[in-house]
Batch of 3 targets.
Target 1
Amino acid sequence: MSLRLRLTLWYSGILALTMLLFGVVLYFFLNYFLYDQIRQDVKREASNSSLRVQKSIALSQKGLVVDLELESRDFYSTNTFLQLYNIALKSFNRSANLQYYDVTLPLTAENINKLQDQSGFFVKTKVLGQDFLIYHQGIRSDDGTRLIGVLQAAVPVGSYERTAVTLRYTLIIWAILTIIVAASLGWFLARKALKPIERVIDAANQIDSSDDLEKRIAYEGPQDEIGRLTNTINGMLSRIQKGYDELDEAYRAQRRFVSDASHELRTPLTTIRGNVDLLEKMWKQTSGSSMLATPDQVQMSLEAMQDIAGEAQRMSRLVNDLLALARADAGVTMEKQPVEMLPLVQEVVRRAQLLEHRAEWRVGDLTALDDVYVHGNRDYLQQLLFIFIENAFKYTPEGTVTIDARRRDSFIGLRISDTGIGMDREDIPHIFDRFYRADLSRGVTTGTGLGLSIAKWIIDEHDGSVEVTTRKDEGSTFLIWLPANFPLSV
């Protein structure tokens, strides 16, 4: 059962119940007050007539009896019929209008007995096929001890009954028509009100069938419940699309990462396998003859073993870098504590002189580091500086590499600049991607392309940032900003 049908049925059911209660209350209210007025008129006429009943006592041979008779009145002009019954004589005395129709109002022994205990009551009955409302009132002796007669006052109520029946059928027909019209309008209004939901369903089906998360639900109505629902669904679709794009980008990055890692690992493994095969063939030839190894063979063996050691060292660095990035992806948090920056940088400067480089290593102004502390990890901060310094040495075949420091607000800046080969502007957004190296450097310098990715992770873990300035064939500058605590005198 659809929601529209349920709403229509609920609305129609509530309306039908309301109309039923209203009709029943209205019918019984009108019927009660209509008959109440008739009862009051009949009862008043009966009371007046009973007071005017003339009592006479006649002596006869049969004994002492009480004679009852109605006052002689002209009742032709009224709808009230009067009838007086003498219990002792068992005789009826009727009003003129009742005598004219030659009709006797029905009176049962049961009704006479009921008057022994009560003064009067109403009875609705049919007389000559017509509905009459009859009021029975007892006539008692002077001392009030015994019932000597019954006075009946009757009025025809056929027209009132027909009016009540007409009212009843009118209410029923009106209620049915009202329910039909209301149900039709309710069905139309429910359809109109739920139209946006149908559009939501259609849009969701289109998105599900086409996998197009860029589609949105068009809604131009008021910001009611439907409008808020539409906005919520559109917002949810936007978040789903963003999450899907991020997952898709992560999946592509993962595939690219696996491909690049496989390529980087395959090269040293190929070199190692080739050198091992060369050594195996050479020493098999030597062992098959009685001659000792020649100086050339010894030299080739030494070169092959050096190549093997170099490639093994390269693989070791690659594995360590991959392990560091894996820890970063796993959300491993580094332990931090206040680190004094000047001794740390001085130690890095001293050890950097021992790195392989052809450019001149210069140390600029480091006075900005005096009494400066950074909340971080000492080992990772040293690794961060070595990554940028080694990167500068690698891409500066001649010229200078300089390190200095500066302050800005609550940040300390460490700047490593070089006069090397630089990069194109298009390469800057990608230099921190894993396994990425500028096209100009491919085949010229060795490396895995993971150093700057690790450096970026360390900077992010310390809530810092990095600024990159570079120009092709003129060099590059990396300015690392870290939040720091400065002495009060500054």
Target 2
Amino acid sequence: MTASVTSTTEQHESNPPERAYRHPAWLERLFGVARRGSTVGTEIRGGVVTFFAMAYIVILNPIIIGGTETRAATDVLGGWLPNGQVAAATALTAGVMTILFGVVANLPFGLAAGLGVNSFLAVSVIQDVTWQEAMGLVVINGVVITILSLTGLRERIFDAIPQQLKTAITVGIGLFIAFIGLVDAGFVRSSGIASPPVQLADNGSISTWPVVMFVITLVIMGVLMARKVRGALLIGLVVSTILAMILEGVLHLGSSVDSAGGWSLNVPELPSTLLSVPDLSLVGAVDFGAFARIGWLSATMLVFTLFFTSFFDAMGTMTGLAKAAGLADEQGNFPRLRSAMVMEGVAVAAGGATSCSANTVFVDSAAGVGEGARTGLASVVTGLLFLAAMFLTPLTAIVPSEVAAAALVAVGSLMVAQIRDIDWSEYSAALPVFLTITVMPLTYSIANGIGVGFISWVVIRTLSGRWRDISPLMWVVALGFLVYFARGPIETLMGV
């Protein structure tokens, strides 16, 4: 994909490329690969790139919500989720839900355990309930989202969002994933002081080989994309991983846990074994006793918080990805919108049912979209690789996060290009748009960016005399976000 991809859904569906595509007719009927201007090879390549961009979740999710006997996120009763079981459940759920999403919604988006929800569970929720009860709340959250999607209410909320804000969401997500990439690579770090809160690498100096490897990878990808080389991101990932393995073989950098100059997550070296038998003991280990343990009001507030994080994170992510893929029309709508929203709600519930946390559309799918993926076939490829990852968990750890992070930065730059479609002449719209774009990366949350954007849009447009242009649903959602942002004081007042 290049930054100039702006074709509407109608153009993709009605004007396929003139060259012939040689693939089975059933594949075309199911996914419409040619109709969307793609090829089977491009879809496979995009699916592979998306997997490698997302594969870190199989390693990272256990670190957040799992643990070992010596280090774990323990719940109110001292219980914890074993790392190996979390990894297996994470790969299983991501694989199954991504495949189903690809077939039903026919969009090139990968799904896996969302980082916002799992962190909230590990830091806050399990202080009051057990892990099994926390996952029960996630299931309830997913059911609510699915019902709203099936009834069309979620789609109506989506349609009520002004086009300016939809575009701002795309741009904000582009900055967000680029920031994620920079942080994951260690190119941007916390300064440890109030001001400035972040800094370049180590005290403004690039002093470790993994960060150098990130820069090299970004340069490789940038040059290949600038020269319009097909498979630029995948080639960059493969070549850079090989270089990283050579670097590790020569310098023996190891993990950052053991050495200050080591790799932050995955050490790029061949594992001692390629196969492992997945332990799926966590599947179905769910308890709905949170309401009895902490009371209906407290449990409902937890579900409310989970709901807002899941509901709007996914909606914003899908909007941005669809626009980046050139599948969205001028209003930001894309093919099978309702199916996509329903399947995302099912994925949230499935993540709770398998105890790997709520699954959602991953913004990292932008890597595959940037590689040219346009249909659900890419998602099927990504999902199959996740299922294989259950057995090949050691192999998925070869690609260092510093290398994968470069793909996020490269694709983020393409998504930010959508800023050209925003009309900055009307300040009552410009300020909410600006806040949406900036709050996402600065607070590390898509939901926060959307919430601030919605509230400021309603308030500023109303006080500027433009209240007639605001949909009633925008008022309802903005009020909901006000409650969401003020949930701490509200809980205190209610004695929760």
Target 3
Amino acid sequence: MGASSGRVMVGRPVDGKLALEETHRFGNRPVRVNGTLHWDILALYQGVLDGLRAAGASAGAPASVGIDTWGVDYGLLDADGALLGNPVHYRDARTEGMDAEVDRVLPAPELYALTGLQRIPINTLYQLTAARHTRQLAAARRLLLTPDLLSYWLTGLEGTELTIASTTQLIDPRTGEWSQPVAEALGIDLSLFAPLRRPGDPAGELLPGVLAETGLPGPVPVTAVGAHDTASAVAGVPADGRDFAYIATGTWSLAGVELDAPVLSEDSRLANFTNELGVDGTVRYLRNLMGLWLLQECLRAWEAAGAPHQLGPLLERAARSPGLRSVVDAGDPAFLPPGDMPARIAEACRRTGQPVPRDPVETTRCVLDSLALAHRSAIADARRLSGAGVRTVHIVGGGARNAPLCQLTADACGLPVVAGPAEAAAYGNVLVQARTAGAVRGDLPALRALLRDSVDLRRYEPAGDPAAWDRAAARVRPHEEPAHGA
């Protein structure tokens, strides 16, 4: 389940390969009530039930069910297990200024040394700081992150999966346990959280009422997977060996490398890198970037203005337009809230003395070039700070279908890009379940080998003038060192 849609997918091992079938897709539309932006969590849960019903009709009773979603957001339950209001969306304005509130109690260098998470206002830590004086939080007896809340409604059992917990900024990435010093300093009651689970742990069975609602014969076990969609997506990277970087693209672009241990240095903090936990004890060392959200919001703005554009033709025209005319910082928090994205992009270009895009084609080209430039910077910094070797960049998620973005990323990074699968999170989710059920065997490299044999991939070789990307980077971040091919 992503920030814009949910999918119910059925995976099957067939002839030594993994087959994946989409049986249901549903929208994910946030709702603003009295000035607060919420997730419509009950509609999302209904989408899950409808999808399980469709999956059962298509493939019969599943051997297992696993859930992955976006990170950081949560629902609060009372003592009877009832939901205390719709979860607040991470793009809601309530976290504005909360980083300064936290800094006064726990300075940023100290917080990073304890949790290793990127400074970004959407983190659960800042959401809880914003909610600390609310009656809702005072009445809560349990906090469940989004995939754990859905799992609870399916099974009646509470748990907190580790990869999603690592997005809260309350986990020590060295131990994989809650950080008591952070919680005590900020007055956060860790007893609100259910016991931790790891990917592959059992998470209960579908309740009788769920079986009746979906028409599935029981018992149907639920398995903890990499419940953060990026954790499942990185598990679903079809890499051969460890010398790769990944870019998980969708609403966000998450660009980095896979490590065995976190990087908690001050240089890492200043570079705004995050250490989130992955499948099989790995660390996802990455930088969060705005991703295709920039383009999604542009499309919404043009449609609202009565001039809708189809994405496919727009990408084709943008790919043929002059490159690197204008670029913006795709990590700029100014692009985080919903709203008139073309105007914000124009203002960023104006502020940095660059030509302002004159039409949707030029704006789209600016977005594509800017994302490729941000990918380049993130991967170069990940290599520099972690010492990881990178020979190939893997793009997975929805952006793997965006051929201009994949080619521009190869050009910007000076490295070959392998694109696919677009449904990497679903593959990673299913692979963990299949291994737990005994349908497949092996460690993470073995699972990825199975995946390479199961999906079609496309390779993009770098082209163009490397120095042009260095000059473009200097317009966005004047003090950044050249990173091309580093």
